[in-house]
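#lab-general

N.A. 3:47 PM
ok so I finally got the sequence cleaned up, no stray characters, all 332 residues accounted for. can someone with queue access submit it? mine expired

B.Y. 3:52 PM
send it over

N.A. 3:53 PM
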Amino acid sequence: MGSVSGMLAQMRALIGTGEYPPGSNSNKVTDWYGFDDAWCDMTVSYAAAHSDNLGAVCGKFAYTVAHANAFKAKGRWHYGLGGIRPGDIVFFDWDGSRTIGRIDHVGVVEAVHSNGTITTIEGNTSDKCQRRSRNSACVVGYGRPGYGDASPLPPTDGILRKGSKGAAVKTLQKNLNTVMKSGLVVDGDFGSATDTAVRAFQKKYGLTVDGQYGPASAAVMKSALKGGTKPTPPAPRPPAAGKLTVDGEFGPATCAAMHRALNKHGAKLSVDGSFGPLTKKALQGYLKVTADGVVGPNTVKALQKKVGSGVDGKWGADTTRHLQTALNAGTF
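B.Y. 4:20 PM
back already:
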């Protein structure tokens, strides 16, 4: 069995790995896995396989939901960020639902910070393997791989339920008194009265009524304390608008600039710097090619004609430089 340091070394070695062309889901990770598709979890599998950790991460996965469920089945799953450590496999839902069935993305934790954020290394983020800074807004939970030097999991699985004790229960009781007028004694002991109050809260807000206060209930509680009735989807943090550096690097700033340009043509994209399926289809619609979400040679040739680069169907640095120049000039 491998180690945390070995897993992180393999993930760091993948930083900068991209797609050829961008949007194609084709690179050495997908070649190794055996098919071209969304490759964030393939990246985790690749790094694990190359550091003697494939068994530690529960096996080879491309589907994030199945991977999270595998950790859960082995008793190695924790909801939320509490107790997270470097080397953990962290799973995200961009809609903020906090449910395993809606997980969109995955990465490996590189560092944990005192301000509640984590540094991750993620494959298939803006079509590359890159470092990201994340907070709890979109985190569903994490799996603790069975590395040879793994720390034990936290004593709880991130869910408050009957029998739980401590400061988190006190906060829950205070919040239930505020939102539901429950009249609970704020003693940090999740007993029958708190269980009844949690179930009443869950029923009122359309949640699964099970008396277990997990990420989904916490997301609704956060909204309820502000007068809302549903979780507030996390707002994207787009790269700032401004003149692009013409460097041939198709990163978040260039992608966000393209979002803004496509929105002027009616695309209605979220400006988040991510080159996802909606962006690809919007680009194809603008270029008047088949909008199938796969950026292949026909799409690239149409883009190259539009921006005035060489037309060879391969999206490289020259194509991106011409795109950046056109975005700066407002001609895209």
